[in-house]
Write a structure and sequence with these properties.
Shape: globular
Radius of gyration: 27 Å
Largest sheet: 6 strands, mixed
CATH topology of the largest domain: Neuraminidase
Helix content: under 10%
CATH superfamily of the largest domain: TolB, C-terminal domain
Number of helices: 3
Number of domains: 3
CATH class of the largest domain: Mainly Beta
CATH architecture of the largest domain: 6 Propeller
Strand content: over 45%
Structural class: mainly beta
């Protein structure tokens, strides 16, 4: 949270000012402002995490030297972990410790030390960044980071865990500009896609950055030094999914920094952090892993050793951003039609009856080892049905409470999605494609990956219908997959005062206000509604704040307004 007391309001701010006023009448007030402050427990909010509790235990025998972990942004309840040293396997496990899948990078690795998640070249995907950055004797002339798109993973795979290679892996070679360092911390900024490395040294750490624009397969990048922090032997770190918090840890302590809108990671790390708990020795021998929960509800830690526990540290204050409400979760049940028939357009609407269609849980498909429901492709393996239809209904109690919608999809090769009969998404499929039309191109490179899209909110109070058609490109291809998740964010909160000003002392009032989480709100004051002066600007880190204004007596009226 920040504020300033600039007396001149920029022209652009004046033009965009909203007419939100509060009048406070007091005959004894003076015109002069003696001072102001705001009441908000910034450090209390920043450090609000409970002590850790064990939520799971990793019993897979091959996972005895776990060095890094990161929470999935697309697969609920999934974290990605790996061993250190020269091993290229990346494991998908549940927060309870169950193994779901093992993916191989298939690349040369010297000392894998940390893993991060963030954006990459395809905006609809999330990417795993795997840090081959360890160098205990500090002798490596360069280090490597590998990037792979995050696959879809499910809890039901625990019965028979997958073992596969990442389909596409990119390699970046990094060199330090000023020496050779050991490092065990890799982070990716969700706002910019920049990669950050924190060195592991006694009493301090040096932060280096590689910009997103430099990250293409095979690139050799000279890192940029950002700043030095007073942090002893940092062994892991993470940036929250919303980009608002940064956490660094070592065996026995951790710290969190708050990042305000518009700040770089380096600028945020220059602010005062808050100490937050870890389990520490002896329960966490060589604790080298920490990651924020994907929804901002807390953070997880893990350590090396046989059968390590996964600990969760729940947030005790409000999340830094408004949480999305899941309307359709991964692995949900869908009615489907796999007969290769022409359904026209009526099947897209809410009035259509799909009672005769089979029901199955996602993933739905055929030809892979990861589907939960196997559907039919017809009688001819070389002339499979080009189109499969899916439908699902969901109930919404108050559609007006929701703003933007986010839709996650697993599909191949083309898709069209309809919400209450209206098309909201089409990918790789010609307009007005018929039931026997194939996809425009192969989508094989993206199959079994969550692709996330913002879609138009056409929700209505009551029953809603989601209808989907998936088209193949090659009718002889052996596999098909489908799943869909839908989330809704709260409707935007307008900036507004909460109630009337409160007098908290003879010449001091308090103004309470709220607005969108993370928004910067400007507070102006006037004595005559003609001339306004800037009073403060405050970042609504938690969506609400208060401002106290110390004013003398004798002025009949005083007005306040809020602006974004």
């Amino acid at each position: 949270m920040s504020f300033n007391s600039k007396t001149d309001v920029p022209a652009a701010r004046r033009v965009n000012a909203r007419g939100v006023f509060v009048r406070y009448i007091e005959l004894r007030w003076l015109a002069a402002v003696l001072g102001f402050s705001y009441s908000f427990a910034a450090n209390a909010q920043l450090g609000g995490f409970a002590d850790g509790i064990a939520v799971g235990q990793v019993t897979e025998r091959t996972l005895a030297e776990i060095s890094g972990l990161v929470s999935s942004r697309n697969n609920p309840g999934v974290i990605w972990i790996h061993n250190d040293r020269a091993r290229d396997e990346i494991y998908a496990v549940g927060t309870d410790g169950q193994l779901f899948a093992t993916y191989n990078l298939g690349k040369e690795v010297a000392d894998m030390e940390d893993i991060a998640i963030g954006p990459g070249p395809v905006p609809e995907l999330q990417y795993l960044y795997c840090g081959d950055i360890g160098d205990n004797p500090a002798t490596r002339s360069n280090i490597r980071v590998y990037r792979a798109a995050e696959p879809a993973v499910y809890e039901y795979l625990a019965v028979n865990p997958l073992a596969e290679d990442f389909p596409i892996v990119e390699r970046f070679t990094f060199t330090y500009p000023d020496g050779k360092y050991d490092a065990e911390t890799l982070m990716v900024d969700p706002w910019t896609g920049d990669v950050y490395i924190a060195t592991k040294q006694f009493n301090f750490t040096r932060i280096y950055r590689a910009s997103r624009a430099q990250l293409f397969d095979g690139a050799t990048v000279t890192l940029v030094f950002e700043l030095e922090l007073n942090f002893h032997q940092v062994s892991s770190g993470d940036i929250s999914a919303d980009g608002r918090e940064i956490i660094l840890r070592q065996e026995n302590f951790a710290r969190v920094w708050r990042r305000n809108p518009g700040q770089t990671i380096a600028q945020a790390l220059m602010s005062e952090p808050a100490d937050v708990p870890v389990i520490g020795m002896p329960m966490e021998p060589n604790g080298e892993g920490v990651t924020f929960d994907g929804q901002g509800l807390g953070y997880y830690t893990i350590s090396e050793g046989a059968n390590p526990f996964i600990y969760f540290f729940a947030r005790t204050n409000d999340p830094p951003s408004a949480l999305a409400q899941v309307l359709i979760s991964t692995g949900s049940s869908w009615n489907y039609l796999d007969k290769g028939s022409d359904q026209g357009t009526a099947w897209r609407g809410s009035g259509f009856s799909d009672a005769a269609w089979p029901l199955g849980r996602a993933q739905l498909g055929y030809g892979d080892d990861d589907q939960q429901t196997t559907i039919s492709f017809g009688s001819d393996r070389d002339a499979k049905h080009p189109t499969v239809y899916f439908r699902k209904q969901l109930k919404v109690e108050n559609a007006a409470a929701f703003g933007p919608l986010t839709m996650g999809l697993v599909y191949d090769d083309a898709i069209a999605v309809y919400l209450n009969g209206t098309e909201v998404l089409r990918r790789n499929l010609a307009p007005n494609a018929r039931f026997n039309d194939v996809a425009l191109s192969s989508g094989g490179a993206l199959e079994n990956l969550w692709q996330t899209f913002a879609v138009t909110n056409l929700l209505r109070t009551g029953t809603n219908t989601v209808a989907v058609e998936v088209h193949r490109r090659s009718l002889s291809e052996g596999d098909l997959s489908f799943d869909l998740q839908l989330s809704a964010y709260p409707a935007p909160t307008p900036i507004q005062f909460i109630g009337q000003p409160r007098r908290i002392a003879a010449a001091t009032i308090a103004l309470d206000f709220r607005g969108p989480v993370g928004a910067t709100v400007f507070i102006d004051r006037s004595f005559n509604l003609n001339q306004w002066s800037a009073l403060a600007s405050i970042v609504l880190t938690n969506g609400a704040a208060s401002l106290t204004n110390n004013i003398g007596s004798g002025t009949p009226s005083c007005f306040f307004r809020l602006r974004e």
